Amino acid sequence: MQFLSLLLPLATAVACAFAYTNPIVDSTTPDPWMFLWNGNYYLTFTTGGDVTIYSCSSLTNCHSPASRAVFTPGANTLYNLWAPEIHDVNGNWYAFFAAQDHNDNSDNQNHHMYVLKGPASSAAPDSDYYSFVAKVSGISAWAIDGTVFTLNNQLYMVYSGWPEGDTSSLNQHLFITQLSNDASGAPTVGSAAVEIAAPQFDWETFTDSGGARHAINEGPAFLSRNGFNGVLFSGCASWASCYSIGVLQYTGSDPMSASSWTKWSDRWWQSNPDGPYGTGHCSMTTSPDGTQDWMVFHATSTSYTGNEAGTPGWNGRLARTQVIGYDSSGNPMGGWPIADGVSQGDPA
User: Fold this and answer.
1) So what's the pLDDT on residue 218?
2) Of 183, 227, 221, 261, whose CA–CA distance to 87 is shortest?
3) Is pTM, for the whole model, over 0.85?
4) Which strand (E) or helix (H) includes residue 306?
5) 332 close to 273: Cβ distance less than 8 angstroms
6) What keywords would UniProt list here (predicted)?
């Protein structure tokens, strides 16, 4: 595992003008997805009831963003919309998100992945409303947190799902499906999904006060740079300070083969002992000039065991961002976030 106590980010901060501090937002932003288009940064995250795109002043400043709710489901259609992502596919903006198609199961057993179609990608992603397209096919069980990327000139989705036949809500694994277009040209047709990762290390698990063991891999985000290809994912419990990020590296030749993916044994990114805490569910973007990779992730300013009444660890999850460096082998270097309020250098 590449774990440096943020030596490279700190060195970068010294080399640059001190310009920003975390968090980069003022209100709750769980599951942040930030992306760069035409010199502008856009942010979306879990609101629960819609898909809203926020136009940020910069990568490091989304304190007073303009916003547009690009999709609000009709009455009695979709509920509990989670972790939307916006992607440019086939010359159009598409939103991928998880939702339930009915509201009578409080334990979310009906979450699946869905697709919305937006404006042409020659226009800003928030320039128009998005229309419902379809549920992603090829996924037979519960599924959330789908992320889309191109590898070997083919479009894939990696998502977090329950193992087939397991409805305990305790186990989440990572699966991959190859996406192709439906009759309308939208990337909604998935191949038969393949499991590529399951929790196998202690840091990926959480035991609650009732003794139930939660084994979780979720929140995947694809990273590609300097010959490295892999998925950053979150483990442990999103409502506890143990929430951390791991690496599932692509080391083979066929993304649809589980043997092509190698999980690093140690957590790659974790809580700062002095805060922030519960770092997870990241997205990757670049500096304006494209030379640096920046991770955007949520975290809390308060530490939680995960066994507090009312799961307060889900409250106060605010987006932070930090530059990511690489070692001499081209692997991303992890660590923990610089403390909130400490000045960091601007993106290149």
Assistant:
1) 99
2) 221
3) yes
4) none
5) no
6) Glycosidase, Hydrolase, Signal
For 268-279, what is each residue's pLDDT tens digit?
Answer: 999 999 999 999
Angle at 193 between CA 153 and CA 260, to 5 degrees: 60
**Backbone phi and psi for residue 339, each to the nearest 5 degrees, phi listed first:** -60, 150
Determine the structural domain holding residue 191 and report its residue range: 7-345
Question: Residue 10: pLDDT above 80?
Answer: no
In a domain? residue 2: no
Token pair, residue 324, equals 């990511």
Q: Coil, helix or strand for 172?
A: strand
* Alpha-carbon distance values, 235 to 15, 80, 304 (Å): 33, 21, 15
Strand, helix or coil at 338? coil
In-domain check, residue 264: yes
Neighbours of 103 (CB within 10 A): 12
Q: How many domains does the chain have?
A: 1
Q: Two tokens at 54?
A: 């926020």
Could you tell me if 277 and 297 are in contact, meaning their C-beta atoms sit under 8 angstroms apart?
A: no
Q: In whole angstroms, what separates CA 169 from the centre of its chain?
A: 20
Is there a cis peptide before residue 276, judged by omega within 30 degrees of 0?
Answer: yes
Instruction: State the Cα torsion 195-81-296-294 to the nearest 10°.
Output: 60
Q: Which residues of 138-154 are buried (b: 16+ CB within 10 A; e: fewer)?
A: bbebbbbbbbbbeeeee
For residue 66, how far is the Cα from the chain centroid? 22
Q: Distance (Å, rounded) from C-alpha 346 to C-alpha 57?
A: 13
Q: Which of 149, 110, 290, 128 is nearest to 229 (CA)?
A: 149
- Other C-beta atoms lying within 10 Å of the C-beta of residue 78: 22
Residue 17 lies in a domain: yes
7-11, 56-60, 108-112, 294-298: segment of lowest average pLDDT: 7-11
* Residue 74 CB neighbour total at 10 angstroms: 7
Q: Report how far apart, in Å, the C-alpha atoms of 226 and of each of 7, 10, 147 are.
A: 20, 21, 21
Q: Domain containing 186 — which CATH number?
A: 2.115.10.20
Residue 255 in any domain: the answer is yes
